[in-house]
Amino acid sequence: MSKEDNRRITLEKAMKEHDYQESALLEILHKAQGIYGYLDKELLMDISQSLNLPPSHVFGVATFYSFFKLKSPGQHIVTGCLGTACYVKGADEIMQAIEHEYDIKRGESTPDGKLSLLVTRCIGACAMAPTIVVDNEMIAKATKEVVLKKIKEVLGGKKTESR
Ligand code: FES
Asked: Cα–Cα distance between 61 and 76 in angstroms, integer?
C-alpha cells in the first residue's frame, strides 16, 4: 500500500470517528494538516464533500486560521467574515468593494488565479469587527481603503488580469 493510501485512510478514519459532522471541521482540518503537513485545494475539496459543507466555507475556515498551512502556489486568498457582528459593522460593503475592484464574486477567483475571495462566518473576533483576512493576516476593524491597499500590496502592486 502506498504512503498516499495510508494517509487517506487515516484521514477517512478520523472523519468517520466524528461521524462526518460539520461541527468537527476544525478537528478534521487539524488532523489533515498533521497527516499531510499542509492543506491543498484537492484535500479541502475532499473534506468539504465528506462533511457535506460548501467548499467556500471549508476554504474560508482553513484560510482564516494562521496555523493552517495552505498550499496554493502563486495564489492570494482574501476571506471576509460575514458573521453578524462583522456584517453589522460593514464587512459586506468591504466585500462589495473588493468584488468591484477585481471583478469577481465571493467564492470566486480571478481568471489568472492570483486572487480568491472567500467568506466565513464568525471566527470569535467580534470585538475586532469587521475582520478581513488577507493571506492569513487578519485586518481588525477593517475599512475598504485599508483592505484594498493590503490586497494591492500582496499582489505586488499589480491588478490581476480582468475578464
Ligand atoms: S462576526 Fe466576524 S468575528 Fe464574529
From this structure: 15
* CATH for 109: 3.40.30.10
The per-residue pLDDT for range 91-135, each reduced to its tens digit, is 999 999 999 999 998 877 888 888 888 887 776 788 999 999 888
Distance 92 CA to ligand 1 centre (A): 12
Taking the CA of residue 123 as reference, the ligand 1 atom at the shortest distance is 3
Number of domains in the chain: 2
Q: Is the CB of 53 under 6 A from ligand 1?
A: no
- Model confidence over 4-15: pLDDT tens digits? 557 788 889 999
Instruction: Tell me the pTM.
Output: 0.60
The parent domain of residue 14 ranges over 3-64
122 C-beta closer than 6 A to ligand 1 = yes
Type of residue at 51: L
Residues 103 and 143 in one domain: yes
> Do residues 82 and 137 share a domain?
yes
pLDDT digits (tens, 9 = 90+) for 17-43: 999 999 999 999 988 887 776 788 889
